[in-house]
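Extended Data, panel c. Modelled sequence:
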Amino acid sequence: MKSLAWKLVVAVLAVFAGAAATFAHPMPNSLLLLDVFHDRVEAQIHIPITDLGLATGFDFGADPSAFVAGHEPEIADYLLTHTAALAEDGTAWTVFVGDISVEQARTDAGLYAELGAELVLTPPPGLTTTAFVLDYDAVIHQVVTHAILVSVRQDWMNGQVEPDSSESTQVGVIQVNPVDGTIAPLSLDLSAGSYLTGFVHMMQLGMTHIAAGTDHLLFLLVLLLPAPLLATSGAWRGYAGSQASLWKIVRIVTAFTIGHSATLVLAGLLRLELPQQPIEVLIALTIMIGAVHALRPLFAGREVYIAGAFGLIHGMAFSFTLAELDLSTPQLILSLLGFNLGIELVQLAIVLAAMPALLMLARSGFYTPVRIAGGLTALLAAIGWVAARLGMNNPLAEMADALGAYAPHIIAALTAGAVLAMLASRYAPAPPKT
């Protein structure tokens, strides 16, 4: 009789727990975020401090951070006791507890403290990470209203290639069975992924990365801005001609592509850990130099070499994205190809869209205001970026970052203006004869 009553209580509480997990989580549950690599699975656990205290008897008190700092071994032992990963044949994986900390989280009811812990689940040599059984029952072994929401955050083979993305795929919920009070392990099968899926998503990541990378595109465009012009007596004067301008633009774009591709591949294959801040500052400085060159010739006739040399710096920045993924060698090679292809496709599309307008404006005689406006805009953006990347937040950097979203509108307006300028110059009245 007592057993039946207990099962009814568990059933009622589990129903309410399931409802809480479904409807915007008014009661905080645990989150378990999985990053799947070729040789291990890393799990980021988030456990509400209140429920963890109920399950363990730990008295976190008014300062949970201080308690956790003084009791990390006990907390790690608790997590190890309630975590196991098994291959499909029952072979146990190795479980290691990493950093443990206290964080703040939010529900509809407000802020609450939660424990954040890192777990590393490693299969025995020769076994895959794409299919395993997760046996995890921390908190819910005592708090039957609790639930554990399990999601995959990164999985290259299945196309989840943005480790910092807030978007993750929920793959299951671990909770108390309302019928018999048991807690079933969660079986995970991620074997549907493929190298093709990873390659395609890396190409898409390259496309979104360059499309959102206002600084990279601005550098290329500011170098192209004076490409249709001739430099004489330290100033930009006259139209260089369609054939010469086209050939110059092709060479500049090709040099930039070769430059950034070289360092992207080199840094990727050698898995170099490059310092991010200095490189980001250098990128802003390349834009500043290009902007000054658009206003007044600095290296007329040598733009191709500058594009290639500065492209090396931009390629280092591209490599940061791949470094975060921690890929196997085959995955890395395909990622380099896909990511670079995505960058080139968007870069080529933007150049093809902007080039006709630049050539028409250069021929029309109305190019000087456009060139000066473009050069000054790039110069101000570069100044803002240099300051921001040195730790000085400023509105110039914020406005420069927002420019990328308006790139299609800017190119469309530039094209419309170029057409009007060509018509105006064609149908302008001839000067009176003297």
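The CA atoms of residues 128 and 209 lie 30 Å apart. This feature is highlighted in the accompanying rendering.
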